[in-house]
Hints:
Layout: H1 6-10, H2 19-25, H3 36-49, E1 56-60, E2 64-68, H4 73-76, H5 79-92, E3 99-101, H6 105-114, E4 122-124, H7 130-134, H8 146-154, H9 160-164, H10 168-177, H11 185-207, E5 223-233, H12 236-257, E6 259-270, E7 275-286, H13 289-300, E8 309-321, H14 334-352, E9 358-362, E10 372-376, E11 399-410, E12 417-422, E13 425-438, H15 455-461, E14 465-472, E15 477-483, H16 496-509, E16 518-524
Parallel strand pairs: 3-4
Antiparallel strand pairs: 1-2, 5-8, 6-7, 6-8, 9-10, 11-12, 11-16, 12-13, 13-14, 14-15, 15-16
Amino acid sequence: LAAVDARAWRDGLRPGLARAAARAVLPALLTAPAEREADRSALAALAAWCGRYGPARNVEGCDGLWVDASGVPHLFGGEQAMLDDLVQRLARAGITARTGLADTPGAAFALARFAAVDAAPSRIAAPGAARAALAPLPVEALRLPPAATLLLGRLGLRRIGQLYAVPRDALAQRFRSAPAGRSGARRREREAALMAGTVLARLDQALGLAPDPRAPLTEPPQHIARRLFAEPLVTAAGVAAALDDLARDLAGRLEARGEGGTRFALSLYRADGSGQQVSIGASRPCRDAGHLIALFAEKIDRLDAGFGIDAMTLAAIHAEPHAAHQVALLRSGTAASETGVAALVDRLSNRLGAARVFHLAVAESHIPERAQRRIAALAAPSPQAMAHRRPQMARPFLLLPVPEPIAVLAEVPEGPPRLFKWRRLVHRIARAEGPERIEPEWWRAIGRSLAGTGPPLAIHLARPRDYYALEDEQGGRFWVFRAGLYGREEAEGGTESDAEAGGDEAAAGQPRGTPPPVWFMHGVLG
């Protein structure tokens, strides 16, 4: 048996009992196949729904869950009222629950599962009273492995309170002296030391003497505002009014701490036990209630109130220090313009998707097509990403997707072009600036990033480049480069990167020795 209902429990059936033995006890027993995956999914959904009782929560084992309800009970009228609300809501959904509330997760676990069955479904240990509340419970309540509980039973230690009187140094000695079957002496000592350490660790965790870290289902927020409604909200206007109240409350909390949020989540909990969450992001730390309301307003229309919303939370998932500023002096200044741009970026990112709005940051490469990379506008760029490196020459605002070959008349070996032919037009050069030499990155296979351009082009782009800024007689300005140097000895087929890019076909297409330099158009200067 994987689980039993209340009637089967009263008749003496327990989980773990063989079905044949269970039918011998209760011939009229009705059974159904256990669905482990469905149970786990349902339990995870239930843990998400319990966000109304605390932001940090997760599944506990295969039949329970935990919630960190710190600072929440007063919203329900006290701890007992909060647990009663939880039990009643689950009962309306057809779920029978036993709850425990204590200073530590281990103590709450023990109270919920091992307190007297005939007691109330909610068991509460007053602050600082976990030691007394755990004393009458069996040692199994400490989440011990079966071997440890069996050995404690052999030693006559069946209640948690009995462990309080046993000196810690003597507990391992008692484990060693207990019967241990046919195990060897050394193995018995190792197992005894391990089990004694486990017992002491679990006891300390339950009493709050040792940390008992828990991984929450979702990232816990740094600040949260919460509202409970006596009458469920069923209209968009009611949700908008509640959002306005929550945003101003959260903004006040952030301002009091001198912080601003960059990620926010609005959670709605419906009366039928379901829930919904929407998230937004900000490119800069924000604590402006009006701006938060504007960002969420575009998503409220898509929310479904169902049978009514009886709880809402607005959380700042991530917050950063946010320096105060004097608004009156910034309205016509540069900072005001930057603030307006940040607000626009926030609106576009939350409307179109965070991955579709980005800015360009400097990358650690001198190769022009690799010198920048995209970073999501809502992502916090690292100092390295925003580092500024001034190039030797001006760069075009836009590069061609792929450098295009051009025919050039120039002095050898390093003279600037006198004229060039590009896209069937001849351009006579009036002014030239350069060259700016950029050596290839020998550790990269440049050809791999130019898929579809053909092996010969990949081979030429893996050679040293000399860039020139040119202006023709009509005033057009261009950015061109020569791939390859006159008189430089190169291996057959180019560098190692060339061989990877072009392979045998590229080598076969090139004459033995140094291929001649080739000119390319890479961009148009403004």
